Amino acid sequence: MVGDGVLRQEIETKANRIAKKNKNIRFIFTSWIKDVDRILPGMDIVALSSLNEGTPVSLIEAQAAGIPVISTNVGGVKDVLLENVTGLIVEEFEVDTYANGVLDLVENEEKREKMSQNGWNHVRNKFHYKRLCSDVEKLYVELFNKKKKNEA
Length: 152
Prior knowledge:
By secondary structure, the chain is mainly alpha-helical. It is built from six helices and three strands, in the order H-E-H-E-H-E-H-H-H. It has a domain at 33-122: Glycogen Phosphorylase B (Rossmann fold, 3-Layer(aba) Sandwich). Helix 3 (77-80) links the parallel strand 2 and strand 3 (87-90). The longest helix is centred in the C-terminal third of the chain and has 23 residues, at 129-151. The N and C termini lie far apart (60 Å).
């Protein structure tokens, strides 16, 4: 588990209980990680369960790495995810609904593969630095031409 928060201790306690019952399950809690690009290749799913979020860069990074995501619908999630295309969005944080979404991704390899491919394409088209640089260049040219026209 990457990240941290007020529920960490409660989550660790539950994870330890699960691991004791099933020796094949192992949990690792990393807290915050700055160089997330080093751990993303080892992930199958990125799950964001925040109750409050701005622009979730972690979801952009996951999609860029070709990892399907599931997230609660908070903050800018719908601005960075394509619902049912690059990931799943749970409207309200309801444990059963969220868990069912995670299980859907875990159990459906074909869906994960499709979302993985769609995720990279989406990020490349919407967030890639070349696209952002092009947008800034267009804005500057537009502003320059507008100023030039007003001076004439």
